[in-house]
Design goal:
Layout lengths: L3 H9 L7 E5 L12 E2 L9 E2 L3 E4 L6 E8 L13 E5 L11 E4 L3 E4 L2 E4 L11 E2 L10 E3 L7 H9 L4 E5 L3 E7 L3 E2 L10 E2 L2 H12 L2 E8 L3 H9 L6 E5 L10 H5 L3 E5 L4 E2 L5 E5 L2 E6 L3 H20 L9 E5 L10 E10 L5 E5 L8 H5 L3 E5 L11 E6 L13
Parallel strand pairs: 5-6, 13-16, 13-17, 14-15, 17-21, 19-23, 22-24
Antiparallel strand pairs: 1-12, 2-11, 3-10, 4-6, 4-7, 5-9, 8-9, 18-20, 20-21, 22-26, 23-24, 23-25, 25-26
Helix pairs in contact: 3-6
Length: 406
């Protein structure tokens, strides 16, 4: 068995960033930028008002004559002279020569004139957003490798981009194996169970920025396993589920020989020791264990980093946080352990990770009830409630305060 870190490094060897493609702005959420993005416009394009009120020139006057109105999209473009005011609304361009905005609640309107209320004053630059206050044309605001959230999509739109260069999403072909499996929605026969891993893995792959290609369930026959993989359309990664161990019915390695070139297939981790890593017909292949929790943990530790490498994303796919242990834990053995845990946040931002009572790799209800995996290195000594432990969040770790990150 090899250590997890070595296995991850070897899996990523030879994985290169995929080619770029142009993607419509409205379809870019979750995609990764293939190159830097510069603003095509200046924002705002002119000095604009940040509030509703009146635009005036700096003055010690208390009374001003209103000569016009400036609204967003319909500005007042004549000069604002001494003693003159222009009614102005939020986002509207500031008239020429005006240099401050008086809030509407700080004046009293008397016909065509305004009078400053007691205590109000004309302060130069007050409540004015200068041209380019946000950004200027030509300024690079988004870098290659940025994963586009709604925030970056909104920024790209403001930069006047309708199409963005994004890295192509990797195509991940998923094949479940085993005579004991039936697809969800079907009645299991005698000695059969419902296949759960392909659906969960497909959802994760989509969340991580890939495209899942479901190849169905292969029977425990070499020709069926080979045939289904061969029918996959231009995959970037093969993923098999089940058949990765050494039992008489674990057929993945023998079924794909001699075209399967195995790099390794045993990792010192729990759950998920039997994982095949290699290439099949020149395409990277990962053979996950059949137990659904084992398959999920292996996908998180190995498939997610592969997708990140394919897309060139610069964020950390496996960012750990630090939490206080919510219950005592006994000593660990020779394998790196990933314990399902409930993760809670204290009012002061501290995290608490409480291991769930059952860690059986076949029990999905405890996986669904967990928010993170407590990561325990090999031979980790017994831990007491309140000890600090490392936790790998499941999903977006929005609960993690910056002070608790590793």
């Amino acid at each position: 068995m090899i250590p997890v870190a070595e296995a991850q490094a070897r899996v990523l060897q030879g994985i290169l960033r995929l080619e770029a493609e142009n993607v419509a702005l409205e379809a870019c959420h979750g995609r990764v930028l293939a190159g830097p993005l510069a603003a095509r416009v200046t924002h705002p394009p002119a000095d604009v008002s940040a509030m509703d009120g009146y635009a005036v020139r700096q003055s010690v006057r208390q009374r001003f004559r209103v000569i016009g109105e400036s609204a967003a999209g319909a500005g007042f473009h004549a000069a604002c002279g001494e003693g003159e005011a222009v009614r102005i609304f939020t986002g509207a361009p500031v008239p020429p020569l005006a240099d401050c905005i008086i809030l509407q609640e700080n004046v009293t309107r008397e016909g065509s004139e305004i009078v400053l209320n007691a205590g109000a004053a004309c302060v130069p630059g007050k409540h004015i957003r200068r041209a380019g206050h946000d950004f200027r044309a030509g300024e690079e605001l988004l870098q290659a490798g940025t994963r586009l959230t709604a925030r970056e999509v909104a920024l790209a739109a403001a930069m006047n981009h309708a199409v963005l260069p994004c890295v192509r999403r990797p195509r991940i072909a998923i094949l479940a194996t085993g005579d004991e499996l039936v697809a969800p929605g079907n009645a299991p026969g005698v000695d059969q169970i419902v296949s759960s891993s392909p659906a969960g893995l497909g959802a994760e792959i989509a969340a991580w920025g890939g495209m899942a290609i479901q190849l169905g369930i292969a029977a425990d026959r070499a020709e069926d396993i080979r045939g289904r993989l061969e029918r996959a359309e231009a995959p970037d990664l093969f993923v098999t589920i089940g058949g990765a161990s050494v039992g008489d019915h674990d057929l993945v390695q023998s079924a794909l020989a001699p075209e399967l070139k195995v790099d390794f297939w045993k990792i010192a981790m729990r759950p998920g020791k039997p994982l095949i890593s290699g290439t099949y017909r020149g395409v990277p292949l990962l053979g996950l264990p059949g137990n659904p929790v084992s398959a999920f943990v292996c996908a998180l530790l190995f498939i997610k980093p592969v997708i990140h490498r394919f897309t060139g994303a610069t964020d950390d796919p496996l960012r750990l946080v630090v939490a206080e242990l919510g219950a005592d834990m006994g000593p660990n053995d020779m394998r790196q352990d990933y314990c399902r845990a409930r993760v809670d946040m204290f009012e002061d931002g501290r995290l608490r990770a409480t291991p769930l009572p059952v860690q059986d790799s076949g029990m999905l209800k405890f996986l669904a009830a967990s928010q993170g995996l407590i990561v325990r290195p090999p031979h980790d000594p017994a831990r007491l409630r309140g000890d600090r432990v490392r936790v790998l969040p499941l999903g977006d770790p929005v609960f993690a305060p910056k002070s608790a990150t590793k």
